[in-house]
Amino acid sequence: MGLPKFKYYYLHREWFFPNHIDIALENIKDFHKRFYPKSDLSISLYAGLLHDAGLVYKRTESDSTGHENRSSEYVRYLLPKFGLSINFINSVCIAIESTDSNSMPTNEESFLVRNADAYSHLISIHFFAKSYFAEDIETFIDWFTKKIESTFNKLTIPDLITEVTPMIESYRRMINLYNKNKSRSSVFNNSL
Ligand SMILES: [Fe+2]
After folding, report:
1. Cα 172 to chain centroid, rounded
2. Predicted model pTM
3. Which side of the chain, N or C, has fewer Cβ within a 10 Å radius?
4. CA–centroid distance, residue 51 to ligand 1 (Å)
């Protein structure tokens, strides 16, 4: 892909599974019990497991846009090998595509997976670790500013929104403080 090495590291399974996928799967099991007990847990778990496969599968650019569609493409390639029905595979793909900010969920499994994915990002070290995987701090803060809003907006379950709102407000305050202060001269500048 011609990307610098640090750009790849967050996609290594040793990092990505414990810091995102495993958490998303735990969330799916938890939210299934708490919020969507009548939804199909198997569909949601397959979707949770494979929803970010497109961050690697057929990726040709640094920009990850469209990875949800590539994840679905991978699911349609992989799951028939395990004898799963086309209806089941279609449902997994629908749930995966609902993790895209621009696709509103249309069924309970989609709502479940979308919330589990977004919540995983907000409760884990994932976003902070991205600063290490970014080119520089300005690039990271620009990315983080947009990402906390788009991730927060993906949540649809009122209990989760209430829980994370103070954290989101705190992030916004931190970013505002940084932006306010970054252009100021340091008080030490004159004495150096
Ligand atoms: Fe994800």
Report:
1. 19
2. 0.88
3. C
4. 6
